[in-house]
Design a protein that fits this description.
single chain; 82 residues; mainly alpha; two-stranded antiparallel ribbon; 4 helices; elongated
Length: 82
């Protein structure tokens, strides 16, 4: 699931994928025992799973926020679509 990455970092679709991959490989080479994020719980012993997930984000479907009408419906508690 990469929806969290595309919602939290909409810039992810504009990255140079080769440089992004090199950065991820740099983390891989450090072989951390845990990864700490400001948005997610600690990931202990899941470095490779985390890196594979993040590597998919630039190619994932961009997150589309609700339009004004949908947002008003959500806030009114009536659901709504975009």
């Amino acid at each position: 699931m990469t929806i969290w990455a595309t919602a939290d970092a909409p810039w992810i679709h504009a990255v140079d994928q080769n440089k992004f991959g090199q950065s991820l490989n740099g983390i891989r080479q450090m072989a951390p025992k845990a990864i700490f994020s400001s948005h997610l719980p600690p990931a202990q012993g899941k470095t490779e799973q985390f890196l594979e997930l993040v590597a998919q984000a630039p190619n994932a479907e961009p997150f589309v926020t609700p339009n004004q009408a949908a947002m008003e419906a959500i806030m009114a508690g009536t659901g709504g679509g975009s």
